[in-house]
Amino acid sequence: xxxxADSLLTLRWRDHSFVLRAPxxxxxxxxxLEQKGLANLAVSIRGAMVMGQAGSEKVLSDEESEALCAxxxxxxxxxxxxxxFRLLCAEPQHRRLETGA
Length: 101
Description:
Blueprint: E1 8-13, E2 16-21, H1 24-35, H2 39-48, E3 56-59, H3 62-71, H4 79-89, H5 92-99
Parallel strand pairs: 1-3
Antiparallel strand pairs: 1-2
Helix pairs in contact: 1-2
């Protein structure tokens, strides 16, 4: 087993966090961000990974969290990405940000 297979990235937003495996889940999320024209965030997420180190972490801003919601759906086939959607996108804070309330 190589170090890359053991790499994990914790993404944090406010008081929520979720973990993605690298390279599979991190790469999938970055690919989707790039397709939506959010290459800077994709690079930032990939750059937060320290391969072979279980403690890699990225703290998301509200804007970054909103960008992730633009590429995640409730129907995610991957349980980690589905959890990310539920933690980030189903939050009342996001609904207030979207409506300007």
